[in-house]
Amino acid sequence: MTAREINRFFLLSLAPFIGMAIWLLTAGFTLDMPLLGFTPSLQPFGLSAEAGQVQQSLDKAKVNAVATKSTIEQFFKLYEQSANDTSSMLKLATAQAARPSLIFDNRIAAVFGKPTRTVTSGNIDLRLYQFSDPNYKGYALKVDLKSDNAMKMALGKDKVGSSETTLAAANRYGAIAGINAGGFADSDDGKRYPLSTTMLNGKYVYGFEPTFEDLAFVGLSKDRKLIGGKFSRQADLDKLNPSFGATFVPILLKGGAKQQIPSKWLNSPKRAPRTIVGNFGNNQLLFVVADGYDERGGSGATLDELQDKLAKLRVVDAYNLDGGGSTSLVFEGRTINTPSDGRLRPLPTHFLFFK
């Protein structure tokens, strides 16, 4: 079959279809499509379910947030109440803790009156009193040692055999106050030596001497407690762990009980300027100084008068320090007592207090 014949065959085969198409175009025929019974969704499949879950989570989070806010508010209310209660308890505890100290100070004020001067620091508390008894005028210095640097003993001019006034020693060391310490013995060459057993910075100045006659050692231990008494053996004194101390006579109180005062010291002299040291149950110290015009026995205080006064104050242990013209009390750069010599006496040992 030739190409011409093939073309004629296909043309004849397609003729009916071409004719129908021409008819449709010229006749204006239209075809109506049936309406669908639903509106197609434009959202991807499954998005509505996820949105619902998200909304539920948001609603739940909102409820949790409200609950959390309420819990926090309750917590802060509870915290505020607790803080107020704690503050009130602290104030009450502070007030209760201060009561024993207040009672203690009031007990002392009942005997000596109100303090005339006070010094308070992290190192020490000092209260100075001035009082008058029927037979003498006196001073009291209450000392609360708060640190190891609050009190020390000094040798006159820092040399054995030398002496200086308590005021000179206090000024030289920068001490806030000072009291005369132990007794002394003068040598033929004019030197003044501390009497019997004397300790400085935990060491014996010139060895231990067993107690003789009515002498007694008095000083401070390394834990800032008043120690003293009669010692026949060095080991007995060493057990008290002494830091410093000096010697004089006699012992007035032991464990709160009055000690018998040797007759020699009751009457020779009967009255005199005196320096006494004692301690309370809380380890605070009390120094009592009695003024007198001379050493002839007609002015000043007797030892039993001072013993009674200390017992009334509930002092535990008490010792008599050097007296007469040696009695010295200095405070803030001034001499407080009236020295019976007319001026302060140079001494070999001094108790000094530091602010």
TrEMBL record:
This is Phosphodiester glycosidase family protein. PANTHER family: N-ACETYLGLUCOSAMINE-1-PHOSPHODIESTER ALPHA-N-ACETYLGLUCOSAMINIDASE (PTHR40446). GO terms for molecular function: hydrolase activity, acting on glycosyl bonds. It comes from Paenibacillus hodogayensis. InterPro entries: NAGPA. The chain crosses the membrane at residues 9-31. It holds the Pfam family NAGPA. It comes from the Bacteria.
